[in-house]
Amino acid sequence: MKTIFVTGCAGLLGNHYSRFLLNKGYRVIGIDNLFGGYLDYTPNHEKFSFHHLSLDEDHERLKDLFKKHKPYAVYHFAAYAAEGLSPFVRRFNYQNNIISSVNVINNCVEFDCKLIFTSTMAVYGCSVPPFTEDLTPTPCDPYGIAKYAVEMDIKQAGVQFGLRYNIIRPHNVLGIYQNIWDKYRNVIGIFIRRTLDREPILVYGDGEQTRAFSDIDYYMEPFYQLIDGHDEEIFNIGADKHWSLNEVAEIVRKTGEKYGYSNTIEHAEARLEVKDAYCNHDKAKNFLSFKDETNLDSLVDKMFNWAKDQPKRELKTMNYEINKGIYSYWR
Ligand SMILES: NC(=O)c1ccc[n+]([C@@H]2O[C@H](COP(=O)([O-])OP(=O)(O)OC[C@H]3O[C@@H](n4cnc5c(N)ncnc54)[C@H](O)[C@@H]3O)[C@@H](O)[C@H]2O)c1
């Protein structure tokens, strides 16, 4: 029985993929510091074990886990993916997203196991969409810069030590077990949480910025195909169809109405963000049998139904390293 490490196992991608691997018969070692995920999101399964550690700090404990379990592959999902917030928490962003990854890379090299790393569409920054994998990344915020730095470090380890790896650049993934109690990220989750709290749905700026949202279910099989093949390749994965945030807000409002919530949609000051961001996914479709059949209405309905039965959780707030220019809704 092969053992796979899944970092960020209490988060959206990590907990769904851990379940997927367990169903396939793998043993899964889940690692998470619960900064952005919840323990009760992790699978309850005899072949799953949870290890509460911070990848950026607990490198000795991480090494011990590698020594003991000798994983076949590592899916490294752990990160704090708050793109808009990242300029205000720069040190935290680089410490958490780069140093954590470096500790994972060191061990993958040392213990000779494949690394599958989730980067982000944010590495394309202000390039002209649709983004293809061969574009030279030009990230324009600290989150994207951190992810691109890790991509480059992984490639270097590939050249020097023969590290086997893949880089995935997902975007706007949705599903149950998403953190909806974090006001800095996961826009649909934020809309749902505000609806449940009977607060206005807050759209930043004019709401005409577009994003392509996709159902987490479509990611599982493509992730799995990387466990043994396609070494050194980079793949965009995500939806082709995009929606404006005004359209998305209306979908959430209508869904709420169905469940007895009558919320208004309001607009707040614009954030510094890319207006239109979407990728080309031909490579994942051709090589990983990726297909996206996301039905946003029914997915939002499923998430809403799940969210309304969740325990009330504390809303996440961060200590800003820079207060200058912080948006009114984050003060
Ligand atoms: N969800 C998306 O739309 C999306 C889009 C692009 C890229 N990604 C990338 O995919 C990965 C997973 O995203 P997600 O949506 O599941 O995020 P998530 O926040 O739901 O899960 C990430 C998990 O990592 C854990 N974590 C964070 N820092 C850690 C640390 N230092 N040590 C140990 N654990 C730590 C968090 O507690 C959390 O449970 C991330 O790397 C993210 O950058 C996600």
Features:
16% strand; UDP-galactose 4-epimerase, domain 1; alpha/beta; 331 residues; binds nicotinamide-adenine-dinucleotide; 2 domains; Rossmann fold; three-stranded mixed beta sheet; seven-stranded parallel beta sheet; single chain
Describe this protein's structure.
- With 331 residues, this protein is of the alpha/beta class.
- It has two domains: 3-173 and 214-237, 3-Layer(aba) Sandwich (Rossmann fold); 178-212 and 241-279 and 294-319, UDP-galactose 4-epimerase, domain 1 (Alpha-Beta Complex), CATH 3.90.25.
- 34% of the residues lie in helices and 16% in strands.
- It contains nine helices and 14 strands.
- The strands form four sheets. The chain has a seven-stranded parallel sheet, with helices on both faces.
- Strand 1, helix 1 and strand 2 form a beta-alpha-beta unit.
- Helix 2 packs parallel to helix 3 (90-110).
- The longest helix is centred in the N-terminal third of the chain and has 21 residues, at 90-110.
- The protein is globular and about 55 Å long.
- The N and C termini lie far apart (50 Å).
- The model has no long low-confidence stretch (mean pLDDT 95).
- Bound molecules: nicotinamide-adenine-dinucleotide.
- Residues 8, 10-14, 31-37, 54-56, 77-81, 96, 100, 118, 120, 170-173, 179 line the site of nicotinamide-adenine-dinucleotide.
